[in-house]
Amino acid sequence: MIQLYSNLPTLDLHGVDREYARIQINDFIRDNYLAKNKKIVIIHGNGTGVIKRTTREVLKINRYVEEFHIDNFNDGMTIVTIRKKP
Fold first, then answer.
1. Which residues of the chain register pLDDT less than 70?
2. Which class in CATH covers the domain with range 7-82?
3. Which of 3, 4, 37, 52 could share a disulfide with 32, CB 3.0–4.6 Å?
């Protein structure tokens, strides 16, 4: 992982299936929202692209996600910005 993101909370989804990934992503986002973390990293890898697509699908509809993007240097990693807690 690039040094810039080394101290951000990170979820590694290598080896999980699609449904477990959905659960893990939503729980990880909720926990970090409650902890008031602004940015998090989700490592989904490339592989067949199933977990990468699932990650995007989940992030698009999660109410705590402000924005997200694939890392410029590692397309197996997504950087997520979480909404501020009121």
1. 1-3
2. alpha beta
3. 37
State how beta strands 10-12 and 39-43 pair: parallel
Q: What is the pLDDT of residue 2?
A: 52
Cβ-based neighbours of 71, under 8 Å, separated by 6 or more? 2, 5, 77, 78, 79
Q: φ and ψ at 15, to 5 degrees?
A: 85, 5
Single pTM value for the model: 0.92
List the chain domain ranges: 7-82
Backbone angles phi, psi at 49, to 5 degrees: 95, 0
Helix, strand, coil percentages, rounded to 5, for the chain: 35, 25, 40
